[in-house]
């Protein structure tokens, strides 16, 4: 019923709950402090300025606070901005909870977990299956909640699991088209490839890199998780080496963060599938609010290209 | 019943028909001329030396001649070589024909053409459908016979059509997984993307680049074919621009031969699918004779990598 | 008598007609709208702010409007700015016309066309001559008016034709110095090489890229124009391939937008001449207002270099 | 007394024991098999051809066999070659053992181990000290015998430990010159940085890469060794992360095999020291037989440079 | 006793002498002129705005003026700023002199010169020693005062000499560890390598590049200084070539400004030592005010990395 | 009358004087020594084998010897080879001299020197003129004889002067087309730019790099020559800096050997002209023996391209 913040137009009045994503204190040219707020709900974000803030305001309107706001949407230098008329923090009486204000995957946690487990079930090599099952179990909660990145693609709650599910579906269709591919390696590789992100990233809201993430990176964390899982399960042999290789090589080459380039057929295919899903996701995200006949903003992670939506393609749903 | 030349081992006697793929005259250290022959059938190739040739021999044992040979397979510096005991050219009496000695696609020409036409049938935008159908019709024979390249991948008779069919199948599964993708653009892009190769390459046997191929390249040839087809069909409008853009951008970036990088979602996906099919094909080809537990030769087109076949994968079928 | 806007110094009063090149609405920190205007005449441009604009102002002071302005030139953060005292739109009564406010080539359209036609006349190969003559005729008006780029070099009315004329003169002197060069190919290559820009760019004022320009680029557009011209004229043969090759390869390599690197002597020389004229033009433009003994601003298109004008070189003419 | 094989000149007779480093079967132009032998002792290597070999010879003169040879040193196309007059395999009666024929570090195993342990003793942070001590103990034998590489630098028995000892000495002098450096981290980083090579390489003679080495690489192996050691010792905390980071980043950047670039001061310095020792070692090796006033052969790993020995530098000792 | 400007916290009152490093006039949105001042003492710098300046102010508060200021330290958009309450220029009566407000090397000029001369004394080759001594003498004053760069590393008074002294100490320890290195070449190379900077840079305060520096660069200037010194001293021979080669190659490769890559062992080592000292200096500078457990700002000259200070390292001294 | 060695076809008898360019001893598979000779005259070169040579032969048939040869031209693995029937060294009685067997510039030394001096005469700035005149005088003989390179372009006697003359002619036409260019700087830059080659290269026959060339390179040598000339002539001032800058920057950027990129208009144009003349010369050389309708061999220095000669271009003169 209620359309989200993403769908408000310039000139519309706003009267709703919003989550403070980030709050940054700045000093205006009149030397008074003000806050730049990034406010969001499950559909998107909008910037707002809170002028002339008191020290008390600074401790009230922080990161991860849900507030109630009245105001108008204005156009400031070509970007939408929310002009605040009134703002108040919420209490339990408001009956609002943080998860309702966070973007999340189009599938539920249960659906995604079921689907991943179905693929694990199809893995026939017992060593590969056991390591994969063990690690998904071990990190189940984080696996199902974590985003796949801090920005660019799948940067929402459940993004990691959703990225894995999408890749598994591509993997399945490729194993049907190319009988030379080993589904065991490909499924296990897909399911595990970004698992290190549950330790590299700080969680689903206001996601940042952990110290471990910055010093080791999800690829090395993930390779180590596999080694430890195998030790705990008493599994050894070439399967173990190859699972680690799939993990280490999935970024394709050194410049992109992989200490080893893929030298197993399924490792190369894992890298290609990762690319396909990430790139389609990035383009979808940037094109979803572009009108037919227009170009999108530039996408840094896609060589800074701006994408065109043909005039004979559909208008975005909610415009 | 009769295994092909690829399956002969060192020490085996050979008594069979073979096609001369290339014949190169050289001078031995005793100042006598000899020929280095690359002999092949539908399964592969082997090198042979024909020592002490007369001028008459030089004009008899040329390129695209079928010969009957007796001899032995030997190991020369780590590579197989056919030591010729006797050799004779064939006559119509032998009842052998050149097409039986050439590697070709695993699907028949009819099967491939049917499948491509089925996809054309599914294209709903009439401009896109008509241009695609027109060009496949116009070049039908060459399209069905041409290799997709002179080396690296799909370098066999029918390789171009087979490459297209494989890509269409991936395209279909991606359009099912990602509803944002426009199947019309993707199918048309896949079918047309390498069509310029029918003028860039010299045909199915002993394939080389034509002068036009060297001066213009299949990408520019293809874009021009689309423009001419549209003119002939009286088609104009954005569809035409976009079909040409799909053609021009399918190598992804300037360094790889595309004068424009993809700026349409389906153009980027076309490039990604092309990559997936080409790379899997290259890996399959190089791994198909590698024993489990061994590394392949290096593959120049895959960053000079050598690929490993896990010990728990199957042995090649014919070893 | 009347010096242009480029020659006004800080502190001088301004009372003159100027063309609005671009008008951009912004919001000041007091939440009021203002316009940032780029105002120009045939000598150059200056920025101005129009504060506190009404909705009516926004529709009056737009792109391509000639206005009459009174004000002062000030220095704002190291750059000249025009401080507006009064501004009014013009009517036919003012007797001013847009072409007088646009930078244009130092030669007249007729002079340039005459010179180009003289070179076409000197081409001896009939196929090459006919295609060249046909295309110049077909696009004559646009060819004579179009800039050669949106920025960097020859970005003024008639810039394309002027760039061609300058290159033809270099080409002529090189064919005299190097008898191995074929003047026919070189002249035709020079005349046609940027012709695709008449469809890639939107025209002489407020030049932008067309959709066709963004999706195909002037190189592919140009190659297609040659192919169509040849078809219409019934011309075939190697000349046609080579003219297209000259077009496709004139940026020198893939990274610079050419799908083929030059493999014809004259194609390489065409690329070199294009480079020489473009680079000298860029340096002239940036150095023309630099005082002897000073460095210019940085030039992005020349590897971000800043150029030095020796103290023993002449002062700019109008300082 | 007895000079090594490296010091024989063209024309000298040879009558000595030598180790077959590699033996490769080839076929001569007369179709007879011959062996190309790389023969060596502790000073260097020389090539020899063994003509007309029988099948029995092929199984006798293999890899890692010590043979007794009589013959002459000749010059073959600018390189020294040993022309074999007689050759026989050795028996226990000959009283020769393989280690005497292998190049090894200039320090004894005991000396190197003592020095490394002394540095471990100086590490004051208990977590860092314990992990370092544990891993050196765990792999002590391999650590003391392994080369540091298969070629380029420190490619001899004990090369790994010798490389570590040299780097420790540089590290010590740098910590004295730059008080900001933490000796604990630097010493531990130096001692552990290449430890993964004990699993990446196959050992001291005829060194090759193991499967694990090819699929994971010594950097990832080493990071995993640290993680496991810490687990076994019950050590956690930031020291553990940082030791792993030192390991992961010591090649400096992605293109050179490090999944993370150094972001700790000591990690950057570790990378720099590794570079200094490796490069000096490479230059020493290539210059050690160059006459003053001459240029060396090209060194691939040093950007293919050829190094010059000044005329006022000393002649090589054994010329 | 009196802590420097670098150590003032937000909210602290400031009442002290400071040097104007740079003064830049700007226009505020109310059209009034203001000055942005970079104020500094020997410990660091802080930005301040001087609002509403008169033309007289503009000529008073310029570059290299010592002023007395009262005000407060505030936080402006995350950076410290000095809010000026009162400001006045100083007169001789204030008894302050410019050198007290400039960062300088941790060793005195005499100490550094003594140490350099001691190394010159140790050079045994007379040609090398005489050229080195001559050039240090010739440029002694500038050598002892010049910074080593305008930013990044050793960018303070005496920075050049301090950089040389640090490198000499590393050079000494390397010649002890690696007997193959020639101390004469290494010491002379270190002492002379950046000498051209005395002509490339404008001096110790507000350092900029000279015209000669911009057109020729310190490497070519230095090589020419050596050639002229040798001529004046009547020195010829290979030593001269090699000293020039050390100079020309010390940046390691073309992209980094060296017209020749090192092809002498000591030239390569000179380049490596230069790197080690510069990088440690850059990291020290950026980490010196970072709290344990925090990351530094990004360092452009170190591939834009941000460095981490471990929690178990010491707090900065003056926090 | 007598056609040169370049014009002999396979099968023709040869009976003429030839110069031994290089003589390399090798060992045949029968263990006998033979010489590989590169024989040449003023038109080109041909390879020959001299089998079964005695030690005396080895000292007779060396580098820079003129021999009389009888034999036949044969085709060996696709390349022409001279099969020697008889060979003898020449004596003064033969009346042949070495200069007749060396390729040289198409203009005489006098013509070239006159033309260069004419351009020097046109230089109006006295400082620039005097330095230029002084250096041409100082190295006049070497300047007139030296090749411009050891391979690739202008690699013949007088090549350096011829390269300069060609560039001067281009420079003259550019200064006529672009009045902004300063002819003084451009002419002096052209004349001096490669002068360092008289010390970098060993002379006109069997040209190699000198030690000075390898350690310093012609760019630094040349900059130093200018500095010394100016000192000797008592010339100072900006002209001197700029002449050195023209020298240092004429390769365009660091990767190509210039320690400074051009930052003077004429320096950039000098680099462009150098490029134009060198590239046209390389293409002319490689195309001069290519038949119309054929591709040339690949040219390493032109990005490994193979060039096409159109069918409508002329056949090479002497085929």
From TrEMBL, chains A, B, C, D, E, F:
GO molecular function, one term: hydrolase activity
Stored Pfam families: HD, tRNA_anti-codon
Transmembrane segment boundaries: none
Keyword tags: Exonuclease, Hydrolase, Nuclease
Domain of life: Bacteria
InterPro entries: 3'-5'_exoribonuclease_YhaM, HD/PDEase_dom, HD_domain, NA-bd_OB-fold, NA-bd_OB_tRNA, YhaM_exoribonuc/phosphodiest
Sequence ranges assigned to domain HD in this UniProt record: 163-279
CDD domains according to UniProt: HDc (cd00077), YhaM_OBF_like (cd04492)
PROSITE patterns referenced in this protein's UniProt entry, alphabetically: HD
EC number of the protein: 3.1.-.-
PANTHER family, per database record: 3'-5' EXORIBONUCLEASE YHAM
Role of this protein: Shows a 3'-5' exoribonuclease activity.
Family: Belongs to the YhaM family.
Name of this chain's protein: 3'-5' exoribonuclease YhaM
Organism of provenance: Shouchella xiaoxiensis
